[in-house]
Amino acid sequence: MKIKPLLSMPIPPKTHTNRRNAQRSTGPKSGRGKLASSQNSRKHGLNVQVDFESSGVYAHIKRLVSQEVFSSFMAADIATSLLNYRRVMDAYYDAYTRSKPVSNYLWNVNLVEFQSALMELSIGTPATAANVRSSTRLIGRLQRNEHRQGRPVVRRTVDCHKLIRYQRNAISRLSKAIRPA
Amino acid sequence: MKSSAKSIATLLPTPRLLPNESEAEFQSSLQGLLSEFETPSPLNIALVIQLNECLWWIKRHTVDKELLLHESMAVILTRSADFPQSYDNRLVSMPLEGFLAGNASEEDNLWIDDLLEGAKLTVSDLRARGFKSAAKDIKMADDLIHRQYQTMRHLQKSIDTVDFKSRLIKRMDLELADLENKALAIDANPS
């Protein structure tokens, strides 16, 4: 029986492939995009690694869970997953209740009236017509941004929607800790 | 057992309620879920609390979904009547809310009817247009509700696993006790 020859080139390890693909990865390109993505992890703090094992609560929960039908290893995993799940749900609550408030002024300001009022105020000051126009443009940009973010219900829905994947991962981890495959 | 059961629930951060929600109602819903267990284990109590919280999130997001639709309907009416638009459209949204719930005053009902007539719309048309305009946000609210259902399914399976394991251990204990009794009986009556 003829044996098929093996490939002459060794298959590169997975890590090499991952690194090469990462070089091609598409991240934010514009300065505005980079600025926005740089603040991603600061909004809810769920991307930060937390050391649950060193907390007193963890030890208590682990002890209580291990008194049930679980081994010490499983109890440790369950305690960590439970604390992680609660952390995500607390962030979810915060996202729901502390969404950015709507600026009533920016939402309703009439730009034409704003510009004429600013023009009147600038009489007798070193401010030029160009200054007034650029200030109005700035307010217009802020107003558009305010409208784009939507009303309060939209804002809290959007904020919570961003945390869906964290909740999915947390519950999946907890479920796996309790029901290992 | 009961004190340890209570302690695991107190160790975990408890689900927080919104200012307008009733703690008593949350507790009564939790007790309703717990009453389905004979002797819930500490872990099961902790999981049932999470499950109850999911039920509350579903309620909140369902209310929000309806609000998104009503807001969108109010914006359409405001635009058609050429009223000044505020971020909450209070001028139209409050009477419209009462109109849709069927508890608006006679005056508000007539006013909304006039607005609908002016915009050449029926309530169903307005609802359809509102839905179309807020479809993206409503889909997000739907995603949030769906996520809570998925989480509940995971929690339910975990609760079943813990319950099954406890029952299995109890059954094995009983079988062991039975075997011991039988062995003692054999020792007592050697034939």
Count of beta strands of chain A: 0
In what range is the share of β-strand residues of chain B? under 5%
What is the H/E string of chain A? HHHHHHHHHH
How would you characterize the largest beta sheet of chain A? none
* Structural classification of chain A: mainly alpha
The SS-based structural class of chain B is mainly alpha
Portion of residues in beta strands of chain A equals under 5%
Largest sheet of chain B: none
In angstroms, what separates the terminal alpha carbons of chain A? 41 Å
Number of helices of chain B: 7
The chain pair forming the largest interface, with residue counts per chain, is: A-B, 43 and 45 residues
- By DSSP (H or I, 4+ residues per run), the number of helices of chain A equals 10
Spans of at least 5 consecutive residues with low confidence of chain B? none
Helix content of chain B: over 70%
Give a count of the beta strands of chain B, DSSP E runs of length 2 or more.
0
Overall radius of gyration of chain A: 27 Å
Query: What percent of the residues of chain A sit in helical stretches (DSSP H or I)?
Result: 55-70%
